[in-house]
Write a structure and sequence with these properties.
Strands 1, 2, 4, 6, 7, 8 and 9 form a seven-stranded antiparallel β-sheet that branches. Strands 3-13-10 form a three-stranded mixed β-sheet, with no helix packed on it. The chain has a three-stranded antiparallel β-sheet with strand order 5-11-12. The longest helix has about 35 residues. The protein is elongated, with a radius of gyration of 27 Å. Helix 3 runs antiparallel to helix 4, helix 4 crosses helix 6 and helix 5 packs antiparallel against helix 6. The protein has two domains: about 150 residues, Immunoglobulin-like, CATH 2.60.40; about 150 residues, Four Helix Bundle (Hemerythrin (Met), subunit A) (Up-down Bundle), CATH 1.20.120. The chain contains eight helices and 13 strands. It is α+β, with helices and mostly antiparallel strands. Helix content is about 40%, strand content about 20%. A hairpin with a 2-residue loop joins strand 6 and strand 7.
Length: about 325
């Protein structure tokens, strides 16, 4: 290998770092990539490839983002840089492939990022710019991608709208002489209607519990909580308490432990013996519940990042502790 190509290799082995270290594994290369969105942008001697694993995911799923440059012989390219966030997505992890020298002398380098969404909706991956220069020259040039779009879907069942109660019609004016009769009759009707609604709601909850596995019920509750807009209203403490309740009920439904009725100390002792998850997850759960108790009982005021981390911890715990039957059923 001549000195010029060695210089290109050394240059590409030391790219600008992102805000954290990679702990990811190796990334497939060459023709093994499978991305539903895959675009290449060219300027002069450099190609910039940006690809996304899937066009549609749910808020419980992650998606891969590939960023790759190909610099012809005599040029050095550098991948776009960004921190631990990418607009609406958060970056969970990334992996960096060793630079690859092709037969024509071009050098290919790539990173693959693992992205996670926070809310459902239409997400964008904004344009990004890879810089490049001719070897021995300090003048930088750039090649820019365009905007990519990913749909993040709700995990609520399609018929959840039926669970919402409609507003009743406003009352009409009544004759004064018989007003007490109408009031008594209305009270009886209202009582009967309320009892009927309670019975129907109870049956619907019981039916839902029989039909849906615990993790789907937990995801449903999380998404309904997000839809209430507590984060937009900056009601962070209330949001944190609600997320804690959702996780406790999931643990009860999933593992049969009476998490909602226990104090954190009592539950941690019980979980140490009866919760069939690894020590890392038990540690995460302990930290999560301790944080939520600080918010609830010690008047700790969480910020926006605290709330996001609380939500993601709950979601990830549910996602990683589903039963094998549930996981295999989704894959099918």
């Amino acid at each position: 290998m001549n000195g010029k190509k060695i210089a290109i290799y050394v240059s590409l082995l030391l790219p600008g770092v992102v805000g954290f270290s990679s702990c990811g594994g190796e990334t497939p290369s060459g023709g093994k990539d499978q991305y539903e969105i895959d675009r290449t942008f060219t300027r002069g001697p450099v190609d910039l490839r940006v690809a996304v694993g899937r066009k549609k995911i749910t808020i419980a799923e992650h998606v891969d983002l590939l960023v790759e440059t190909k610099a012809r012989d005599g040029y050095v390219a550098e991948l776009p840089k960004f921190g631990d966030k990418l607009e609406q997505f958060g970056i969970v992890d990334y992996s960096l492939d060793p630079p690859r020298l092709e037969a024509d002398g071009a050098v290919v380098t790539r990173r693959v990022y693992e992205l996670e969404p926070f809310l459902s909706g239409e997400y964008i991956i904004p344009p990004m710019t890879a810089t490049f220069r001719q070897e021995g020259d300090s003048v930088l040039h750039g090649v820019e991608s365009d905007t990519l779009r990913v749909s993040v879907l709700s995990i609520l069942p399609a018929d959840m709208a039926e669970l919402e109660l409609k507003d009743i019609a406003p009352p009409e004016s009544l004759p004064a002489g018989r007003l007490w009769i109408y009031i008594a009759a209305a009270a009886l009707v209202a009582g009967a209607a309320a009892a009927l609604l309670i019975m129907r709601a109870r049956r619907r909850r019981e039916t839902l519990a029989r039909v849906l596995p615990p993790h789907e019920i937990a995801f449903m509750r999380l998404e309904k909580l997000l839809a209430e807009g507590l984060i937009d209203q900056k009601r962070y403490a209330e949001f944190t308490e609600r997320v804690s309740d959702i996780l406790r009920h999931y643990i009860e439904d999933r593992f049969g432990l009476k998490a909602p009725e226990r104090t954190t100390e009592e539950f941690i002792v019980e979980a140490g013996k009866g919760l069939p998850v690894d020590q890392d997850r038990k540690g995460i759960l302990k930290d999560f519940l301790t944080h939520c108790d600080m918010v609830k009982f010690a008047a700790f005021e969480p910020g926006a990042e605290d709330v996001k981390k609380t939500f993601e911890t709950c979601r990830d715990f549910v996602e990683t502790t589903k039963t094998r039957e549930e996981a295999s059923g989704e894959a099918a």
